Amino acid sequence: MDKFERPRLSALGALKRRAEEAVTDKPSFVYVTYIASTPEKVWEALTDADLTAAYWGHRNESDWRPGSRWAHVRTDGSGVEDVVGRVVESKPPTRLVATWAAPAEEDREDRHSRVTFEIQPYEDIVRLTVVHEDLNDEGERSQVGAGWPAVLSNLKSLLETGRTLPQEPWLVPSP
């Protein structure tokens, strides 16, 4: 083996090992968007119940401290919670991690998925990365794969223009 090939092959081997360690038997979804905003404003949009109601159609209610419960509550006044979970990690304004479950499965941790929001500033923009992992099956992955782009497009529009999209993007029919 050529002495110049050793470092490259060693790096490739290390990368392969890390990738294999990261593999789980549960599906995940990753979405990245770029927003003309600040980390503080993106954080507020993710954690302020009134702002989430504006672009998501649900109020995300919590004190956002690690260990606290959070709930995705309908805005129709019914008080119905469609998603619940626990705050795993909260580092304003750059990182938020929470579990995600149907209310009926709140006590079944084996049915919880996990959502990580990474907020990374770069000059006058923010890169928002959402990783939704430990999904229960491909059907759930398909649902979040349709939901996250719609919700995050609405969030981006709100932060950049002061208005949400003229129609609820999650209602657009799939081809």
CATH superfamily: START domain
Sheet-strand content, in percent, reads 25-35%
At CATH level 2, the architecture is 2-Layer Sandwich
Helix content: 25-40%
Silhouette: globular
- Count every beta strand, where a strand is a DSSP E run of 2 or more residues: 7
Keywords:
globular; 4 helices; seven-stranded antiparallel β-sheet; single chain; 7 strands; 175 residues; alpha+beta; Alpha-D-Glucose-1,6-Bisphosphate, Chain A, domain 4
Polypeptide structure, described:
It is a single chain. With 175 residues, the protein is an alpha+beta fold. The protein has a single domain (25-171), classed as START domain (Alpha-D-Glucose-1,6-Bisphosphate, Chain A, domain 4). The protein is built from 4 helices and 7 strands. It has helices at 5-22, 39-47, 49-56, 138-161; strands at residues 29-35, 58-61, 69-74, 81-91, 95-100, 113-122, 125-133. A hairpin with a 6-residue loop joins strand 3 and strand 4. The longest helix has 24 residues, at 138-161. It is globular, with a radius of gyration of 19 Å. The mean pLDDT is 89. This is Activator of Hsp90 ATPase homologue 1/2-like C-terminal domain-containing protein. Belongs to the AHA1 family. Pfam families: AHSA1.
Structure summary:
The chain has 175 residues and is an alpha+beta fold. The chain has helices at residues 5-22, 39-47, 49-56, 138-161, and strands at residues 29-35, 58-61, 69-74, 81-91, 95-100, 113-122, 125-133. The chain has one domain (25-171): Alpha-D-Glucose-1,6-Bisphosphate, Chain A, domain 4 (2-Layer Sandwich), CATH 3.30.530.
